[in-house]
Each structure stands twice: as C-alpha cells, then as structure tokens.
Amino acid sequence: MESDRPTIMIAYGSQTGTAIEVAQDLQRLLQKRYFNTQFSSMNDIPISALPHYTIILFVCATSGQGDVPDNMATFWRNLLRRNIPNNYLRDVYYSVFSLGDSTYAKYNFAGKMLYKRVENIGAIPLCERGDGDDQHPCGLYGDFFPWCEMLFETLMTMYPLPPGTDIIGDDVLPRNSYNITYDTIEEIDDHDQNDQRLARLVSNERITDPNWEQDVRHIVLDIESTGITYNPGDVVYIMPKNDTTKVENFIRQIGLDPDTIIRNISRNTPGALKFPVRSYPITIRTLMEQYIDVLGTPPRYFYEIISFFAEDEIQKERLKYFSTQEGYVDFYDYNYKLKKTVVDILHDFASVKIPLEYLLEAIPTLKPRPFSISSAQRLHPNEIHVTLAVVKYKIYSQVKYGLCSNWLKNYQITGNYDIPVFIEKGSMKLPSDPLTPLILIGPGTGCAAFRSYIQYRHSLKSDGTQVGPILFFFGCRKQEMDYIYNTEWNQYVGEQFLILSVAFSRDQPQKVYVQDKILEYKGLVWNMLQNNAHIFVSGNALKMPRDVRNAFKSIVGEFGKYSEKQAEGFVKMLEMQDRYQSETWA
User: What is the distance between the alpha carbons of residues 104 and 364, in angstroms, rounded to a whole number?
Assistant: First the structure.
C-alpha cells in the first residue's frame, strides 16, 4: 500500500525539542494514512535534494527575536541564495506548521518567512500555513489539529485510499521504535559522562530573605576546565538528573529491576531518532535518572501508547479517549493544567504494565534547562553565574517541584566537575557599540541577563572605554524580602554608572510596577530613545511585557505628538530594528 503513495519529507527546525515532538505526531498521523515518510532536521537536507521530493512538510519553531532555530540555520542561509531560480521547486508540494508565542512581536516569524520563501521558488502550497500559539487555551495543539484537517483533506483528495481500505485506527498498536539489548555482566562504571563539558558548583547562596515565599539562588559554576566562552546575554543549558528515590520507586512501580544492565538501544523504525545514551553498558536506574523525563509532563502520544497496556478496561478507555482529538480538551485539563508527571499518570492508571521498549518511545528524553547567564566573562573569566528561582507551587493540594531548580538547590558542593553544561546564544542581542544607551526592564529574576550587560559595560569602563548610559528598571514585591543584588545595583548607582529605578509592588497600599516607574522617567526615556537607545525587556510573560510596551507607547505618543496608531507604529519600528527586544517566559 505505502509503496503506491509518495514519500513525504517531514523537515523540522527546533530549538527546545517541542517542534520535534509535533513533527513526530504529524509523522504518525501520516503513517496511519499509509504515507511513506522521511524525518529530518532541515540542516541535514541539502538544498539540491529539495526538487526530488514530491511533498515536503515543514515544522518550524521561532527562536528569540524572530530567529530560525539552530538546526535550521544552515538550511535557511542556503535557501536564501540568490542563484536559486524562481521555478526551482515547481514540482514540489509543501506546507508549513510554525510554533511560537503570540506575546512576542515576531510571532512565528521564522515559519512565515519559510512559507513565503518556498513559495517564491516555485513550490505549490497544499494548504494555508498553520500557526501554533503557546497562548491558545489548549496550547499549540489547539492550532495543530485544525491545520492537520486542512492538510489531510487535500492529501487524501490527491491520493485517495483504495476502496475497502480505511485509515489505520487508534486500536492498532504502533510498531515499537526501539529495540533493547540486555547484558548479564555483574558490575559496570555507570557514570556515563563521555563527551560532556562538566562544570563545578562553587557557590549556592539564597539571595531572598529566608522567611520569604520565593527562594531565589545565586549559583556560581566553575568552568575553568571546560574551555567555555560566552558573551553578555548568552544562555547556559544545565542538564539535571531525576531524583534517585523517585526513580527507584517508579522503576519498581512499573515492574522493572533498576539494576538490569542494557548493552544497547537501537532504532527499530526508519523515523526513530537515535536514543541519546552517550555510552553503554548502562543500568535501567541510570537510564531513568539521566535520560528519561519521568518527572516531566508527557505529550498526548504517551496516553495512546500506554492505553494498549492498561489491564483495566475503564482505564484503557479513558486513556484512549485522552489520546483522541475529541478528548483533547479533557486531556489538556488533566495533563497540562494539573501538571501531571509520568509518575503521577502511571499511579493514577495503575493497571498499565508497559514494556521498556514502548516506554522509551512514549516518554520524552530529559532535556537540558536554559538559564540566562547573570555574569560577564570579562569580570569572571572562569565562572558562570545563574540567578535561579526555585520552582515550587501547589495545584489543589498537591505540591509540584521544578526539576532542575530543585536539583540545583539541593546539590551538594563536592569539589567535583560533574554538572553537564553548554552555552547557546541568547535571544536578546546587546548592541556592539558600547556607547549605545540601554534601557533595561527586568523585574525579579528577569534581571539576570541585565546583570551580565551591566557588569560587561562596567568592566569596559574600568579599562578606559567610553560607554553609554544605562537606565535600569527593576521590580520586586518587598524591599526587605526579595530585592536581589541590591548591594551591587546601588554600588553602580554610587559610582554614577547606573540610573536605577525600583518598583516595590507590595510596600505601599497601592501596587507599583515597573511600567509605573517607566512613566515616572518618561522625559529621560524619550531623550534616550532620541539618542538611539535600545530597550530590553525580560521577565514573566503574563502581563508585564504588554504593560511595559503600553508605557513606552504612551511616552512616544506624548513626546512625539503621535496618535495611538502612530505610536504603535513607532514601537513596531523599534522592534523591527532590534531596538526593542524581549525575552519572556510563562
């Protein structure tokens, strides 16, 4: 059957792994419709190969300020070559599903550019571009499913199934993507630290008051042995481990022996990604501690797979319902709103007895966590500083913990280089000219990247370089509780190096936020904007970025004598010129 249908190339560009998961879901849905598929990052596809595909489906995230993801960057540069004729892909059908967050100015910018560029060199659209939005009430999949319906309607019209053949139903167990080879040796070195850059923890200091509700830590990592270099605004990725006790309990809960030794994990299907174990042999315990995200919230596909291994019929039906499009809202409420982990789910559905081969397919691998670097390497040549908010919250009566932040909080200083790290460029770009004025808005731990900016500029000035003015708006709740780095900020103020305005939102009856402080400094803000100031905003994505943006629009309208529409256009112009950059998170 599949040999009579075209091979569809699924090409992804992903920065954090989410686009890969969406692309894998797309691949499974196509395979249920008897389409052959190939699966690849865009960087691994030569431009010369594109005309040889009948259909290409792109799944593309947007990184930072409208940038393409790293594993798409080379492909995108080559695709923009001027010598590519405008009919180069005249025989190729395509579509694009893009992933982003509509709170960003350049929402889904990479996907929009890709869709237009491929069309401009002759490819034929199968359907409209799909725009996945993290802000959708049901997340990205609230946009993914309608796009799939449009896509499949076109594909199944072009390539109908033979009479009597139906789409493969959800009651058919997919082929397992991985084979596991076990070993019988009795003792192994199970540290598995090959080909890693390892940092050493040298300081782990709480910098909010001990009686305050939010535990914020100043983490210092020694990187002297790693050869790592970084720039202001860069991001350090830290690979955590799952809690040993929770892992042991989980392994025994699913009926496995943690000391069982695995010699190899190999791919069993063409579309499977190489499983990221760095060295073998390895025990199941280490596999679960270091590679499998058993304490994370799994994707929808997890429910589909484990439904086949539920022995209780009521549980089986519920799991199957969660994995359908019809059950997506209920699935979203249970899985994402309640922040269910794999451990939670297999506790709730205790009749599930799943083989390890399918567990590896159904659970995402453990991902490194990104943190804005809060130090300048000019000042701290052998260190990386991280400003860490320890994640702990309640959903109803159940306490939830952020994996990496709590792992670091409880990490014991041993003197060993044993924390896996790597560096990537941050989404915000500090202007290269040190004379460029900076306006920084960073409440809470949003100040982290700006601490690196300020330290960098200060070290330049100390070496005799002229630097531009810095206006910094910081915000927290109470001056005596969570005014982090206050001694350092005020030292810079005393040197007349930094202009600082702090909003203590809970220290007076009327709440005061950073956007209120921006308006208090409106004359200075306008003057700095007239002198090519760059604005940087970092912090929680809920309300702050919108309110801050409105404050700047108000200032532009008042001093520039602009209408509301003209002021909006002025701020958009700043964004397009990278003079207004944001890095926010949910």
Answer: 27
Please give the pLDDT value at position 566.
97
Segments in 427-485 forming alpha helices (H): 448-462, 479-482
Give, rounded to a whole angstrom, the gap between the first and last alpha carbons of the chain.
45
Report the SS3 class of residue 237. strand
In a 13 Å sphere around the CA of 84, the CA atoms on its Cβ side amount to: 21
Q: In terms of DSSP bridges, do strands 470-476 and 398-401 run parallel, antiparallel, or are they unpaired?
A: unpaired
Pick the closest to residue 302 from 405, 420, 174, 191 (CA basis). 174
Instruction: Let me know: does 130 contact 147? Beta carbons within 8 Å.
Output: yes
Query: The tokens of 255 are what?
Result: 């009926």
pLDDT of the residue at 562? 96
Segments in the chain below pLDDT 50: 193-194
Query: Given this model, what pLDDT does residue 66 score?
Result: 79
- Residue-level pLDDT at 191: 52
Rounded Cα–Cα distance for residues 562 and 577 (Å): 19
Name 6's Cβ contacts closer than 8 Å, sequence gap at least 6.
Answer: 35, 36, 54, 55, 159
List, in sequence order, every residue forming a beta bridge with 206; answer none if it has no partner. 217
Q: What is the pTM of this model?
A: 0.87
Residues 383, 220: contact at Cβ < 8 Å? yes
**Which pLDDT tens digit goes with each residue over 3-42?**
578 899 999 999 888 999 999 999 999 999 999 999 999 9
The type of residue at 487 is T
Element (H, E) at 552: helix 544-560
pLDDT number for residue 471: 98
- Is the separation of the CB atoms in 251 and 288 below 8 Å? yes
Q: How far apart are CA 353 and CA 364, in angstroms?
A: 18
162 by Cβ neighbours in 10 Å (0-12 / 13-18 / 19+) ranks as exposed
Question: C-alpha angle 94/97/102, rounded to 5°?
Answer: 145
* Burial tier of 116 (Cβ tally within 10 Å: 0-12, 13-18, 19+): exposed
> Contact, 427 vs 583, CB < 8 A?
yes
111-120: long-range contacts, CB 8 A cutoff, minimum separation 24: 111/58, 111/60, 111/61, 111/62, 113/68, 114/13, 114/58, 114/60, 114/68, 114/76, 114/79, 115/58, 117/79, 117/80, 118/56, 118/58, 118/79, 118/89, 118/94, 120/86
**Residue with structure tokens 């200060």?**
458
